[in-house]
Structure formats: C-alpha cells, structure tokens
Amino acid sequence: MFEEIKIPDNITDIYIDVGLSHNAPHTVEWLSSNPNAFVFGFEPVKKNCERVLDIIKNLKFEDRFKLFQCAVDNVDKPEVKNFYITCNSQVEGDHGQSSLYELTLKNSQGCEYWIDEVSSTLCVNLSQLFEVIDWGRFDSITCLKTDTQGNDLNIMKSIQSYFHRVPFIKCESYTFNHYKKNDDDPKFIYDYMTSNGYKLSSGDIGSADHFYTRLS
Fold it and tell me: What is the pLDDT of residues 172-198, one digit of tens each?
C-alpha cells in the first residue's frame, strides 16, 4: 500500500500523524505553517477520514497529504483486528476514544461514553512506510505524532530500528486505565524511549502526552 506514493519535488519535510481524529489538528498546523511539508496520516474511523479529507480539500492541501484508512500496530504483516469505535454524550460525531482496546470508561465529569461499533480494521506496521521513503532525498522524518488510545508503545517498538530517522516524537503515554489493557502506565513509554536515545522534552512522566527529542 506504500510503494506507489508520489511526493512533490518541492517537499523538504515529512511528517507522520497517527490518529487524526475528526479534524486532524496537527496535520492542519503542519501543512498551514510549512509550504514544503508533506504529511502521511493514519486514521481507522471511516467518518473521521471523510471529514479530514473534506478539511484538506477545502484548504487545498491535497497534493501534500496522503491518508491511510487503517490502524497502526506492531504486527509482522498487515492484519485485520477488531477496532472499537466509541461515542460520547457531549459531542456528536466525536469518536476520540476509539481504540484497538475495548473501552471500559462509562462516565466522566457528567459525560457518558459507550462503544458504538466494533469494526474489522486493517492494521499495518509503520516500519513498512519507513522502508519505502527515499532516505537519499530525506535525512529524517521531521516529526512523528501518535495518539492511538493505548497503542502508542507498540508503535514505538515497531519502528525502533528507525529511531535515528525520527528526531521528534509526540505520543500519548497514558489513558488513565480507560481500556482493557495491562500496560497502561506512562512510565512504560518513558522508560522505553529514554533507553533508546530520547529525552523527555515536555510533559512530566505521569502526564497523558509526552514529547520526546532524540539525543545526538
């Protein structure tokens, strides 16, 4: 699925956005602020993909953005898994808690959450994308952002051999035990990243989001 990607000649910076939600704020910021940026986006929820593509089209960024409707996971080859699409009582069309992990959160601060659909979703390994990037043309990925509601550590593990190509990583480190998983502790990601040549640049160890910078 990655072999025939065409990147315009003017592009100097590649960004990767995993987990776009319904409005892809990071992608929009990158493309708006940098006319030489190209973004690869990954989003498993179909309705989110449709909305994001409308935004990209309205902003006339189509030639600098490539969307993959799939999830990202530490898999040996493309694999279909259950994906839990969620809704909440406060924002219609918000599927922000959707995940490869089953949601256990029911109520929070007056907001109700529920699983609206269980979808069979293609999961790919991000390293497959790295394998086809022209590293003679691009020295590195300018920034990688992941927000996958509990699967960020698995993504980090899947691209370990490419860490030297990714100087900046923003990831979700903690989902506050809202999903059926055994390793929901921000220290797991912190320990993994710092033992693999990164330092925590913003956010404390116990925060939901971490920003890591690659040490020279």
Answer: 999 999 999 988 899 999 999 999 999
